[in-house]
Amino acid sequence: MSNQDTTRKLIVLACIWAVLLLVPYWMPPLGGYTALGTRVLVLGLAAMSVNFLLGFTGVLSFGHAAYFGLGAYGAGLSLKFLAPSTSLSLLMGMLLGGLAGALLGTLIVRRRGVYFAMVTIAFGQVFYYIAFQWSSLTGGDDGLRGFSRQPLDFGLFSIDILSNTNNFYYFVLVCFAIVVAVMGFILRSPFGRTMLAIREKRTPGPLPRNSGRAPHLDRVHAVLLLHGFCRGALRAG
């Protein structure tokens, strides 16, 4: 890549981040609202994680929303039953989504192509019916109620992310930026190159020796990373 291409890429990235930073100021005059920008960022994380699995590993999952929802329920239930703590809720949301991804990933990653996709549909439907039928815990059609976002407590000061939509937007934007940076780091690492090798290698057999891993193990890691990144982090808000 030439210096000119690099400069152009950096300018585009700077413009994108500038637009995101100024959302609370330009969206309302256009008839929108800041909470819409927050939702776009959260759903953007979900889309990025789909791309993480499909675009870079070449594995199609139709049960993606199940883990997204598990993260939300993990965070919400933590706020409702454990403690009114934003940091704890984020941890519990990511833990629930990550554990579910790890446990189910070990069962389904040995399947390939349409078989993998069909198994993810099956597990997605299982979680769907659990969420809607176990109304005493999940709230069913009405959703999970009885909790609210809590202020970010930094000891000497706290930040209100419940009533102040701008504060909540910037909190989500910071989380979004962190996830983007982590994903970028992973994709540039040896593990990321192994993911690309999985996508390109369609026939059975081991990957090149320098990968250092078996293909199915890398799929486990990819699914686990995917499901741990975008869940509970932000959906419970």
Average the pLDDT over all residues and give the rounded result. 79
> Which consecutive residue ranges, at least 5 long each, have pLDDT under 50?
203-213
CA gyration radius, whole angstroms: 20 Å
The CA-CA distance between the termini, in Å, is 40 Å
**How does the overall form come out from the CA principal axes?**
globular
**H and E order:** HHHHHHHEEHHH
Number of helices: 10
Strand order of the largest sheet: 1-2
Strand segment tally: 2
- Helix proportion of residues, in percent? 55-70%
Into how many domains do the coordinates divide?
1
Oligomer: single chain
Structural class: mainly alpha
Strand content: under 5%
Biggest sheet character: 2 strands, antiparallel
Give your account of this protein's structure:
The protein has 237 residues and is mainly alpha-helical. It has one domain (34-229). 69% of the residues lie in helices and 2% in strands. It is built from 10 helices and 2 strands. The chain has a two-stranded antiparallel sheet. β1 and β2 (158-159) form a beta hairpin. α3 packs antiparallel against α10. The longest helix is centred in the first third of the chain and has 24 residues, at 34-57. Residues 203-213 have low confidence and may be disordered.
